[in-house]
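Subject: mismatched residue count in predicted assembly?

I count 472 residues in my input, but I want to confirm that the predicted structure covers every chain. Input:
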Amino acid sequence: MLKYQQIAIDIEKYIEEHNLQQRDKLPVLENLMARFNVSKSTITKSLDLLEKKGVVYQVRGSGIFVRRHNREGYISLLSNQGFKKDLEEFNVTSEVVELKVCQPTEEAAYNLNIDQHQEVYYVKRIRYINGQTLCLEESYYNKSSVTYLNREIASESIFHYIQEGLGLKVGFSDIYLHVDKLNEEEAAYLGLKEGDPKLFMESIFHLTNGQPFDFSKVTYNYKHSQFFLQANSHIL
Amino acid sequence: MLKYQQIAIDIEKYIEEHNLQQRDKLPVLENLMARFNVSKSTITKSLDLLEKKGVVYQVRGSGIFVRRHNREGYISLLSNQGFKKDLEEFNVTSEVVELKVCQPTEEAAYNLNIDQHQEVYYVKRIRYINGQTLCLEESYYNKSSVTYLNREIASESIFHYIQEGLGLKVGFSDIYLHVDKLNEEEAAYLGLKEGDPKLFMESIFHLTNGQPFDFSKVTYNYKHSQFFLQANSHIL
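Triage response: the counts match. Full output below for your records.
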């Protein structure tokens, strides 16, 4: 971890410990430099990172302010990237329904940018949040990147293992979502009725070298899932 | 618009015109500098912006590559921020159901960070995509920021007017979403049945100075709405 990344984490801790709220002002640059004992360029990079992450916003000529989603029980839409901290406030557990090495479906091969004869790990899990079904998840991991998986790992955080155990660097992801009605199988897994609403999300996760390594299809229980998302003006 | 922002737009055009696909490599820095006749620091800033926007990804020591969601018919989850270009491929029209100046609900006042006695524009619209109902939208605009609105403006793009007509600078937004069942009124507006699924999205849009100016509640027609979203590794 680079210094400015560590300082960014320290500033986040500062915000939490001081219980700063949305629109509260952070100390001026000079004070932050002194407090964290770093140069101006480091603190600037830390603040830029925190702005990208949606933790602060900077108003030119006015200062740096806290940005804080403040709705309890909402999950970051991007948290299944293994952004652990976000899920820490929830008690998320997993039940592995199936785990096998196989050839990918045509759809999975396409999204993983591999041939259909290349092997993948297929993992089907039910995930629980505070003891209730959160989602049904089917994932295809490119075996040439994710070289090993087992049930014990899959019952915990696979992303944690991929990063810490395998040392892979997770980069960007593309997410597709729509709403539909549950089919019979999905309803059974989630403890709901056929025809009930579902949020269906497909994600393609890439390594920092641009190679997709995980294609996941997730069906959420509408009763126990609500999401938040922070957008920045640079997308305009 | 600053120079690097203009060059970023030019590079996006270049990608489109050359029909570059996901994982295609961009010309090296020196070539881009020569082609667009700008300095290294400008081209670097342009590429950083494009990376934030999810248009390219950079692989250290290897180059800059194209990132391109390639599913037709998917709307950027952030497109109702007025990111017009994204909606251009769709034919989106609006029918104004109601437009009035009034005092906000308690919920709207809270989300707009104003007192309940301050006035807002309340706008209720049905939005259509390619002639079919896309969503039912209820918005509250802080009248001290959005000083004027009428039905004609509301039947077009309100965000375009806010930025171009009123000269306001749109900053970041916070989005909350969940899935539920349509009630009778919503179903009637969308031409669906009571109990059918819905995606329900609440957004709080802020100016660059951090002041919220728009609180919107949008109910999507699950048959005609599917979304994509790009996430970057900096959130990890």
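The first strand of chain B starts at residue 56 and ends at 59. Marking this ticket as 'not a bug'.
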